[in-house]
Amino acid sequence: MIIAIDGPAASGKGTLSKQLAAHYRLPHLDTGLLYRGVALAMTIARQPLEDAALAEAAARNLKLDDLSDPRLRSAEMGGAASIVAAIPAVRAALLDFQRAFANQPAGAVLDGRDIGTVVAPHADAKLFVTATAEERARRRVRELRGRGAHADEAQILADIQARDARDGARSVAPLKAAPDARLLDTTNLDIDAAFRAAVALIDGA
Ligand code: C5P
């Protein structure tokens, strides 16, 4: 069984995908980490994120070991990832790995922006997970403050809106729901309720 989970930044799709992978006993790939990995490699090498040839080379040289670096999780790297993710050659370079992961015999859960549309259009179940930008910003603030980190809600909302705009407007694989995706709006759902709703949609698919 292949489960494709797409949605905007901070929609809760990461947590949901982990829970679904455990529930259905499937391997899980957070595809955002691949784009974050390219962005981090470019940043460490002090290369401009917009340089298509260098970014493509970084994507081709990406190693699985690179994806456990804690620096990948920062908000800055999320923003930087959305810049390299708009480069078609970077997306092409990362496609084979994602497709191979999706097509392993056991099946898989993949989450990202273009799983149901590009990476695994034949997925058995597709969910498009959303929440309002304001609610996503509130969740990010709670998460950061929970970790004792500083969080400026207005700034975080602006960052989320900028990333939505960039991910939705790019010419290759823009963030959009596949025509056959089931919509899951988590604005008024807590983590458990979102998980139950997702299982109901998948089992009913
Ligand atoms: O999901 P996450 O916030 O880690 O993704 C970081 C960025 O990587 C996104 O804003 C998006 O631009 C890009 N991305 C993508 N396609 C995916 C996953 C992530 O373009 N499948």
TrEMBL record:
Listed EC numbers: 2.7.4.25
UniProt keyword Cytoplasm present: yes
Domain of life from the UniProt record: Bacteria
Keyword ATP-binding: yes
Biological processes, Gene Ontology terms: pyrimidine nucleotide metabolic process
Gene Ontology terms: cellular component: cytoplasm
Cell location: Cytoplasm
Ranges for domain Cytidylate kinase: 3-196
Residues given in the record as ATP binding sites: 7-15
A GO term, aspect molecular function: ATP binding
Keywords: ATP-binding, Cytoplasm, Kinase, Nucleotide-binding, Transferase
Catalysed reactions, as listed in the record: CMP + ATP = CDP + ADP; dCMP + ATP = dCDP + ADP
Pfam hit, one: Cytidylate_kin
InterPro entries: Cytidylate_kin (IPR003136), Cytidylate_kinase_dom (IPR011994), P-loop_NTPase (IPR027417)
Family label: Belongs to the cytidylate kinase family. Type 1 subfamily.
Name of the protein in question: Cytidylate kinase
Organism per entry: Agaricicola taiwanensis
Gene this chain is encoded by: cmk
